[in-house]
Amino acid sequence: MTENFLLADEPRLFDRLEAQASDSLLALIGLAKADTRPEKIDVGVGVYRDAAGATPILRAVKAAEKVLIETQETKSYLGSEGDARFVELIKPIVFGGLGARSDRIVGVQTPGGCGALRLGAELIKAAGGNSRIFVGQPTWPNHVPLIGAAGVEFVAHPYYDKETRTVLFDEMIEALKGARAGDLVLVHGCCHNPTGADLSLNQWRELADLIAERGLLPYVDLAYQGLGNGLEDDAAGTRLVVEAAEQALVAQSCDKNFGLYRERTGALFIKASSAEQAQVAFGNLLGLARTMWSMPPDHGAAIVRTILETEELEADWRAELKEMLTRIRSLRARLAAYDERLAFIDEQNGMFSMLPLTPEAVVELRASHGIYMANSGRFNVAGLSDDNVDYFAAAVVAKLDG
Ligand code: PMP
Predict the structure, then answer these.
(1) Which of 90, 117, 140, when mutated, tests ligand 1's pocket best, judged by the most ligand atoms within 8 Å of its CB?
(2) Are 260 and 61 spatial neighbours (Cβ–Cβ below 8 Å)?
(3) Which is the catalytic residue, given 256, 272, 278, 336?
């Protein structure tokens, strides 16, 4: 009988598992929810919020969903590449004219930007070699587990100094001079998470030159296109490094700029050395996707496809994205105008900036003012409203004094 094979002191399979630390941002959302003070502010969570504090479904998304309900005739399987037309329509938004022209750039739909980042890491691993990936500090905390899970080696380099609120560009370039041909450089295409501090166009150019000169591969994470300074401006750096590089990867997400979060909508693009090699890479992506999710979820990509195929819906999406961007920019301007020590916030982009606060000061702000932000000092600008931005700024500035 089976029991006979169990040794008494041998732990059962799942008894061997070790408890994991819970996600600190999720814990923060729980704390904010439980706070009963009416003036509390949740600037921890990383989703866009409108002036009423809601994360709305975009008008064009609602309209596209209605179209899909009326017209979609099957839920039968798509292939591992997902919705190929979605990928085709997103490509020029990311790459501009370069994307439309180049048959060296191929893409597949993925479950969000996370899926794209992971699939890219699997491709790097599958290609063999000993490429390492250079990653600026700080970065989005999920980059390391997502990409590291595929077994790619990380090399950390400086990116941003929280105290002086500056991008450490010279230090970054110096570190990248230590990279070997074939190494990768992970860059945030725009709206750097967690700092909000992006490279200037001249810095992107310098980076592109270095990448070309040394035979490095940019691995661009483009999760917030349209939420920094507009769709075109936000893709400018990505286009520069992709054009300069012989080979590149771009992990794209529609979860923020289409407000699709839980629909898990994104794409991974690969630039290869030739059109033929691009097709080989594409075949590899399909094989790797099959081993992870087989095929990506359809609904979000079908929504984006429907929007981009329908002139009025696309125009309305662009208009609403601009409304979101305008709201973020105006909150940034208000914070910057409040006190010169917050002036840096208006120079930065996207939903996040990082305040030069100690973790203790962050915890104190929680207790004294009901302000909930990550311990690093990262806060979501879109979590503020016209009514509480001054309250927030006053509380933060008092801590900078203290
Ligand atoms: N990259 C960055 C920098 C992000 O902040 C996020 C989402 N928080 C992603 C990628 C992944 O986005 P998605 O929800 O599409 O997987």
Answers:
(1) 140
(2) yes
(3) 256
Average model confidence (pLDDT) across the chain: 95
- pLDDT tens per residue across span 125-161: 999 989 999 999 999 999 999 999 888 999 999 999 9
Residue 293 annotated in active site: no
Instruction: Tell me the C-alpha distance between 320 and 255, whole Å.
Output: 14
The structure tokens 């195929």 sit at 309
317 is catalytic: no
The residues facing 250 across adjacent strands are 220, 269
Per the structure, the complete domain to which residue 380 belongs is given by 22-57+313-400
* CATH number of residue 27's parent domain: 3.90.1150.10
Residue 234's domain is classified under what CATH number?
A: 3.40.640.10
238, 256, 304, 354, best to mutate for ligand 1 pocket (most atoms within 8 Å of CB):
256
Selecting among 221, 234, 255, 298, the annotated active-site residue is 221
**Residue the block writes with tokens 């596209």:** 64
Residue 83: active-site member: no
Q: What's the whole-model pTM score?
A: 0.96
Q: What's the domain count of the chain?
A: 2
Query: How many helices and strands (H and E) does the chain possess?
Result: 15, 13
Tell me: the pLDDT tens digits for 229-274?
Answer: 999 999 999 999 999 999 999 999 999 999 999 999 999 999 999 9
